């Protein structure tokens, strides 16, 4: 439905360096061609949103980037190095952290044990130092640290999943639908943490079905439909794009006719 009219790459940041560059990436499930020639860039320090409806391929793209799903062609460069054939755990060591869809916290483990899991590749002393920083970022988790994670609310579990991802001290944070299943007020809370991370210099690729919250805060955004990137632009300008408005806000031609 959407046409690929605009340029697909972001204006260069001050440093001009993409931390992540995905080029002509393809992924299959058996013989189903799920991602088709995906090319995206995430500049160092930017928050880039990838929006698209259910089943568009957002999770598959994140899983391919983090190495949980094999790529069938194309390249994935992290800070200039092609990592497309690198095992997922080595990508973590190279600075990539993936906060998965549905949070995936270990419900029977304590909150702190879950957070520590994210630092499994790092030396003990660094883990202790990082824990302090994490609790500063997520004060709500401090009081819960010895509780079983399964007892947390959905919003707290989302915070926990982000906290766990941050324990590997990533250069690039991949977030898959952090707003999923959360009440609007809680979504706001989770997103204020994401904004703070961005302000502190984290580079973030944020996948969201919820374009209302993702686009306004994104420096750059992509729209994915049935495995292809069909639009790219600054978050705010995509919000104004009639085709995007129709697809994601139910405000298409009819509203522009009224304006
Ligand atoms: N393990 C799988 N095996 C086969 N098909 C899958 C698998 N996971 C996802 N798909 C299909 O791939 C497409 C993209 O799914 P997904 O990446 O989960 O989309 P999104 O995250 O945008 O909702 C969908 O058509 C989905 O049914
Ligand atoms: Mg998904």
Tell me what you see in this structure.
The chain has 259 residues and is an alpha/beta fold. It has a domain of 175 residues: Rossmann fold, CATH 3.40.50. Helix content is 37%, strand content 25%. It contains 11 helices and 10 strands. It has a 6-stranded mixed sheet with strand order 6-7-8-3-9-10, with helices on both faces. Strands 2-1-4-5 form a 4-stranded antiparallel sheet, with helices on one face. The longest helix has 16 residues. The site of adenosine-5'-diphosphate (ADP) has 11 residues, from strand 2 and helix 1.
Task: Fill in the keyword field for this structure.
single chain, 259 residues, alpha/beta, Rossmann fold, six-stranded mixed beta sheet, four-stranded antiparallel beta sheet, 10 strands, disordered C terminus, binds adenosine-5'-diphosphate, binds magnesium ion
